[in-house]
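Researcher: Structure prediction, please.
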Amino acid sequence: MADKVKFDLVSPERLLRSEDVDMVVVPGSEGDFGVLPGHAPIISTIRPGVIEVHKGTAAPDRIFISGGICEVSADRCTVLADDAVEVATLDRATLEKRLKDAEEDLADAKTDLDQHKASTAVSVLREMMQAAR
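Model: Predicted structure follows.
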């Protein structure tokens, strides 16, 4: 059994990361799960939240994703993210403004589709605010 997991983080635009890591913690839609070498194969949807990438004894890299899909095999963890941003780069003031705008959009939404889009944006931005603490 290998002592590392190949971690690939892919956005719709490009490959964001591809590296060998010790462990990845993924915010699955049914709960967080850790991926270590030798993990059983799974495919999971991902809720908005933070992926933690563990390498050695250093603090984990934290990446916020707005959702997506994760595919795991014994030696690989591939995350197909709708959107991804390093938690360290999140600015609370900007997020607060974006959240206020999204909440106003939700209050003004006239159609079911507009309500769904605005509600989703509000949920994602609230999770981003929590991650930025």
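Model: The mean pLDDT is 93.
Researcher: Thanks, that helps.
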